[in-house]
Design brief:
This protein is mainly beta. It is built from 1 helix and 10 strands; from the N terminus they run H-E-E-E-E-E-E-E-E-E-E.
């Protein structure tokens, strides 16, 4: 039953991302490591066109494995982009709320959290990101990924 719930949440999140509001969105993939719980994670994100100057909506889903726990994190994040003149990289800062689904040793739990993030993305699509988790989100995450344009 727990696995069915996790699969349903994962499928529903991609259904949300396929609405007309995301018609001009860009997609990306990510993978990395987290601490507390200590896991390897992978996932994907959607990024909208700017909502206002330099501000985008960048929700993502990350699936973490390890530390005898499976985690599915649905992160509703915003990114504020800081352009660097004449540089191939742009920096961003942001954050947002999260819904974290934990499945461990035959039990499961759903907890809310909040993430703060900082990252850098190359014009070609490669990005690196560091997240600080508050409340009941994983404590820290480091990710690398690629944003398709």
């Amino acid at each position: 039953m727990k696995r069915l719930l996790l699969i349903s949440v994962f499928a529903a999140s991609f259904g949300l991302f396929s609405t007309p509001a995301f018609a001009q969105a860009h997609f990306g993939i990510r993978a990395g490591a987290s601490a507390d719980p200590d896991q390897f994670f992978f996932g994907g994100h959607v990024e909208t066109k700017p909502l206002m100057k330099n501000l985008t909506f960048r929700p993502n889903v990350e699936i973490g494995l390890g530390d005898d726990i499976t985690t599915v994190a649905m992160n509703i994040e915003f990114a504020y982009w800081i352009p660097l003149e004449n540089k191939p990289w742009r920096l961003y800062v942001g954050g947002g709320p999260a819904a974290n689904f934990y499945d461990f040793e035959g039990d499961s739990d759903i907890k809310g959290g909040f993430n703060l993030l900082v990252g850098g993305q190359h014009n070609g699509g490669l990005f690196v990101e560091f997240k600080l988790g508050l409340v009941d989100s994983p404590e820290v995450k480091f990710a690398v990924g690629y944003a398709f344009k």
